[in-house]
Specification:
Length: 275
């Protein structure tokens, strides 16, 4: 996977070593992206949403949480879509002609008997699509970790380095995320992992005594539809900056076919230079 050409005036935020790892291994781990205050604030909101989820009459006491389109739930999730520490990386990897496809909360509780999961994103069709080294990514996800995971078997996010260039078998693997090539990521709260759709990824069982909490934001090109929402609510748009509005699909009424071609001010809006 290649990187997008830098926009005029844009400086590279990835080191040469990170660029090489992105091409060869297909993923990156960025340390300390979120401050301790941001982690604390996000965790407080996630904990409350998780508690509310567990109070629902049809939810088991040991259930996890996989909630999508969380931008609609709280402003704190809106701000993450173009976080100043991470959005420049989005632009460097993808180009400015993008929008947000998904915002997700994941809570994986203690599950010592769990088998985990290994998969690629996008279902049967996207499983068969792998981009060349000279191509931009088809899709990227940023996963922000809210809990310390100092060792394996804590529900760790797991990747298979270099697998983004190989076909994932239709039947998956009997051992799931425990195949020899799989790598469970041991991270700290505030760290972030970046990976493309074709990366073989998933999670191992959580045999610790605490839930693993994280947030995932997915970015795709503007010619692709969003994954977890059809269109943003008027209430969400009112809470967004011009760049955030563009990222959730508000491209105005500028001309027919606008779902393929970006508006003329796309680069300026993505750089945050809108008036």
């Amino acid at each position: 996977m290649d990187l997008a050409p830098l926009i005029e005036g844009q400086e590279s935020v990835l080191t040469d070593k990170q660029k090489q790892q992105w091409k060869e291994d297909g993923y990156l781990v960025m340390k300390g992206i979120l401050s301790s205050e941001e982690v604390e604030n996000l965790t407080a909101i996630v904990d409350q949403m998780y508690e509310d989820h567990l109070q629902q009459p049809d939810v088991k006491p040991d259930a996890g949480l996989d909630r999508r389109n969380v931008m609609e739930d709280h402003d704190i999730f809106v701000d993450l879509m173009d976080h100043p520490a991470t959005f420049p990386i989005v632009l460097e990897l993808m180009s400015p002609y993008i929008h947000l496809s998904m915002s997700e909360i994941i809570v994986r509780p203690t599950d010592p008997e769990g088998k985990g999961l290994l998969h690629t994103d996008g279902g049967q069709a996207m499983r068969q699509i792998r981009v060349s080294e000279s191509s931009l990514p088809f899709q990227i996800k940023f996963q922000y970790f809210l809990t310390d995971l100092p060792e394996p078997d804590m529900g760790n996010f797991t990747v298979v380095p270099g697998s983004h260039n190989r076909l994932f078998p239709d039947g998956g693997f009997e051992d799931g995320p425990y195949i020899p090539e799989a790598l469970p990521l041991c991270v700290e709260a505030g760290d972030m992992a970046i990976f493309p759709h074709a990366m073989w990824h998933g999670f191992v069982a959580n045999r610790s005594d605490k839930p693993r909490k994280s947030l995932i934001y997915c970015y795709v090109h503007q010619c692709m539809r969003a994954f977890d929402f059809e269109k943003p609510s008027p209430e969400l748009l009112e809470r967004c900056t011009p760049r955030q509005r563009r990222l959730v699909g508000d491209i105005g009424e500028w001309k027919a076919g606008s779902y393929f071609y970006s508006p003329p001010d796309q680069v300026e809006v993505m750089l945050g230079n809108e008036s």
